[in-house]
Amino acid sequence: MLSYFVPRGIHRVEETVKQSRFIATVAHTPARDDAKIFISQIRDEFSDATHNCRAFVAGPPGSTDQIGMSDDGEPHGTAGRPLLNMLLHSGVGEVSVVVTRYFGGIRLGTGGLVRAYSGMVRKALSTLNIKEKIISVCVSVTVNYSNISAFRHMAKLYEAKIRKETYATDASFILELPEEKAEAFRVSMLNLNNGETTIKKI
Question: Would you give the DSSP letter of residue 103?
């Protein structure tokens, strides 16, 4: 996977189901710790709610390496698992959701709860503003001074960003570029400098 979609920011939707107020809040959370911080913030914001059920996928879409969920007092399997399943099949990565519920006096039953929580995530994801995340790699490149101008031009062509420059006997650079372009860039650089360029993935 060379790129995938992630939330552009925090997004919120609200709906009333049989007098219970449901609020779904979605956010971009690249790592497990980011997800925990976001969840804590929403729980603090809605500290008077009956439930703050949540789930997160801290990784690419569908990845189960770093996931989490909680029913937060709802019957087991009626909130956290449905939320997580919706996230895992959404095609969006690095995402967390908290669905807040203010109980309105009418019990929904286990099936009703699953439908309500799943529906809130579906509604939030359908209007979510997303952006593409490009998977990048870092490489170190050493060139002689006569090729610096050509090197900079080549780096621009391959959308490489120079993160560090060092000048000694030769010029050395640390670059970040899209993973899908890394091999073509390596070949082009070797051709540019007659095979004398040193390129290492870091």
Answer: -
Q: Domains of the chain: which residue ranges?
A: 3-132, 135-201
**What's domain 3-132's architecture?**
2-Layer Sandwich (3.30)
Q: How many C-beta atoms surround the C-beta of residue 189 within 10 A? A: 24
Tell me if 1 sits within 8 A of 180, measured CB to CB.
Answer: no
Which CATH number is correct for 135-201, 3.40.190.10, 3.40.50.1000, 3.30.70.240, 3.20.20.100? Answer: 3.30.70.240
pLDDT in tens, 16-52: 999 999 999 999 999 999 999 999 999 999 999 999 9
Q: Which residues fall within 8 angstroms of residue 163, CB to CB, at 6 or more apart? A: 138, 174, 175, 176
Residue 200 has which token pair?
């290492």
